[in-house]
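User: Teach me something about this protein's shape.
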Amino acid sequence: MIKNIYKFQKLQKIKFKNESLLIEALTHKSTNKNFNNEKLEFLGDRVIGLILSKKLIDLYPSEKVGVLDKRFALLVNRETCSDIAWSIGVQNYILMGNQKKITRKDKKILSDCCEAIIGAVYVDRGYDFAKSLVLKIWKKNIDKSDITILDSKTKLQEYSLKNYRKLPIYRLMNSSGPRHKPIYKISVSIHGSKEFIGAGGSKQQAEQSAAAKLIKDKNIN
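Assistant: First, the predicted structure itself:
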C-alpha cells in the first residue's frame, strides 16, 4: 500500500505531510468500519462546494442565482465527481474489503473517494492547496460551464410564464410495462400549441421528453 500511496502522490504532484490521511481517503467502509473515507468525504464535499461556487460567481458575476445553482449542480453531481476520480486514476488505489475491482459503473464509490481525497488535502495542506487542486482537476468541466444548462421543463416553464403567464399543462396519457420497469406517456401543451407526447421510464423523464419536443417545434431558445 505504501508504494501505491507514493505512486498516487507522484502522479498527482501532491506530497502529504500525513500520509495516513490519504490512506483514509482511499479506504472504503467495506474494508474498515472504523477507519474509512466517510468523514473525509463529508468534509471534501463542502470544500469542493465552496471552491466551485466562488469560481462560478467570479466567472459569471451577472448571472442569476437560479442559473448559477444549475451550473453548480452539474459540476458537483455524482456523475461529474466519478468521472473526475476516474480521470486521475483513483480506481487503481481504492481499498475495498471484498477485493472488488472498481469499474466506471461504481459511480458512488468513485465520487465519494474523489471528495474524500479533497477533504484529506484540505486537512493536510490547507485551503489554498486544495483550491489549486480542485480548479486543476475540474478545469475541463469548469470550462464547459458556460453552456446553457436549463433542462427542457424549466426552459418551457419560463417561456410559458413570460409569454402567457400560465404554466405548461402536462397530462398522463397512459403507462405500460411491468411494475418494476414501467413506461409512461405524458403530453404537454402551452397556450395556443398542440399537444406533444413524450415517453420515459419515469414521469419526470416523460415530461422532459414531451417538453423537449414542444421546444423544438416552437424553436424556443
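Now, about its shape. The mean pLDDT is 92. Strands lie at 169-176, 183-189, 196-200. If you'd like, I can walk through any region in more detail.
User: That's plenty for now, thanks!
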